[in-house]
Design goal:
The protein is an all-alpha fold and 397 residues long. The protein contains 16 helices and no strands. The chain is globular.
Length: 397
């Protein structure tokens, strides 16, 4: 591997573009918040386009509604593959324990968030309950390897949990967080169904290139969601599962295009877009994470507690319940490992930032909620240091 390629792979593996975008935005927003806001919402074609269209060329809109469409498309690909023969969710009885852990990782944060809303006496932040429900897949995987070692069963368990609760998170975004400034127009969702039918026909006719799936049904789905005043970033979620794929899944985060790349359209889609998305996450972090430290408020503590405490308790509790019901934990998964897997799942950066932007229209509350999502990176040092203090044994082979 060339030196340049090795550097690129290190940057992607450690989510450096996303973290660099987050850090840059925080520094910029705290030094010059007015300038930062003006930059991310600047629309250079605003003088030439209708007001309703001009915002489409702002950095904020491009990152949240175009780039994230491909990000969620990749997440959907991981979820779909995990349901294939050989995948982590196949057969179902093998997946019951991690799926119940996932349910705990969604319900636990919601419960803790609602308790925090009550304790803090802040009913104005009640709608943010969906912010802490998802896990940042890439960062959780990275931290899990540092906590448990590359070969520990907790790494695979946590990856499955992260992918599954991101799937639930996508549903929460679609159903509970439509465009807050415009009433939902559900009739337009008929075009999403038409886009799905189009993708199905393309698959039946043997269309193997991923590009037509993105350009035809993908664009139709995006336009329909935009007209329905729902998040067009979800446009590829109903389309990706129709892409032709290998009969057997090779596992999460396998970046090769598989043994037969000509027929594994789903894997080719990921192979084509993952690198641009990984580096494009700098832009996502830049336009979403720029909050002033003065914005810290009740939403900050509610989101943070829900992620760190709610995830840990929720995952641990329901996974143990599943174990008692006869759906055992993977071999080698101890109670100690389960607790630290739940804590690591509290890393909610990417999706939490996205949902925070959708949950609140008040910029002060939105900024406070985003700060809570940013503070969730504390799960990383807590898990790494805590696992050493409590004598968790790492597995390297």
């Amino acid at each position: 591997m060339s030196e340049r390629r090795r550097v690129v792979e290190i940057l992607r593996e450690f989510s450096i573009p996303l973290l660099a975008g987050v850090l840059t935005s925080i520094v910029w927003a705290n030094l010059d918040e007015v300038g930062y806001r003006a930059a991310i919402h600047w629309s250079p074609l605003g003088s030439f386009l209708p007001a309703g269209v001009a915002h489409a060329v702002s950095a904020h809109y491009l990152a949240n509604e175009i780039l994230m469409a491909f990000f969620f498309g990749i997440a959907t690909k991981e979820i779909t593959e995990s349901c294939l023969p050989g995948g982590a969710l196949f057969p179902l009885n093998r997946a019951v324990n991690p799926l119940l852990g996932t349910l705990g990782g969604v319900l636990g944060p919601i419960l803790v968030y609602k308790v925090m809303v009550s304790v803090l006496g802040a009913p104005e932040i009640a709608s943010g309950w969906g912010i802490p429900t998802a896990t940042d897949i890439a960062l959780a995987w990275l931290v899990a390897r540092a906590v448990f070692g590359a070969k520990h069963p907790a790494v695979s368990y946590l990856l499955l949990l992260a992918v599954a609760d991101d799937g639930i998170g996508l549903g929460i975004i679609a159903v509970f967080y439509p465009d807050p400034t415009h009433p939902t127009q559900p009739l337009w969702l008929g075009l999403v169904v038409l886009a799905m039918a189009c993708a199905w026909v393309m698959k039946r006719r043997g269309v193997l290139s991923p590009l037509p799936y993105v350009v035809v049904p993908g664009v139709l789905s995006w336009a329909a969601l935009a007209q329905a005043h729902m998040h067009p970033a979800l446009a590829l979620v109903p389309i990706v599962p129709f892409m032709p794929h290998a009969i057997r899944d090779e596992g999460l985060f396998v970046e090769s295009v598989g043994p037969d790349p000509a027929t594994d359209t789903m894997r080719r889609f990921e192979h084509a877009v993952k690198k641009p998305v990984d580096f494009g996450m700098f832009g996502f972090g830049l336009v979403n994470a720029g909050v002033a430290f003065a914005a810290i408020g009740p939403a900050t503590w509610a989101v943070l507690a829900a992620l760190l405490v709610g995830k840990t308790l929720g995952v641990t509790t329901l996974a143990l319940v599943a174990d008692k019901l006869g759906f055992s934990l993977p071999e080698g998964m101890t109670l100690k490992a389960l607790v630290f897997a739940g804590l690591t799942a509290g890393l909610g950066l990417t999706v939490a930032l996205f949902v925070a932007g959708a949950a609140f229209t008040d910029p002060t509350i939105q900024a406070a909620a985003k700060m809570g999502a940013l503070f969730s990176v504390a799960a990383a040092p807590l898990a790494i240091v805590g696992s050493r203090l409590f004598g968790l044994r790492r597995t390297t082979n």
